[in-house]
Amino acid sequence: VDRLSAVEIVQAAVQALGGKGGGGRPDRAQGGAPSIEALDQAIAAVEQVIAQRALRRRQEEHLDRWLERVA
Predict the structure, then answer these.
(1) Spatial separation of the C-alpha atoms in residues 50 and 10, rounded to whole Å
(2) 22: which DSSP letter?
(3) pTM value?
(4) Among residues of the chain, what percentage have pLDDT more than 70?
(5) Residues 33, 18: contact at Cβ < 8 Å?
């Protein structure tokens, strides 16, 4: 939960499916869409959200290590 929000993931999928909104708690979220015809795009959108968060996390860790060395 502290690394990736379920809300962020659901919102990306819902938007790709042509729906609006999506929400809940960081550990549990839900959303709706009119159809699942764009399921491949929704999966790609979720993968992108996860990849972006993983990249940000690595950047934050790298910065933390660098700051510890220069402190």
Answers:
(1) 11
(2) -
(3) 0.79
(4) 97
(5) yes
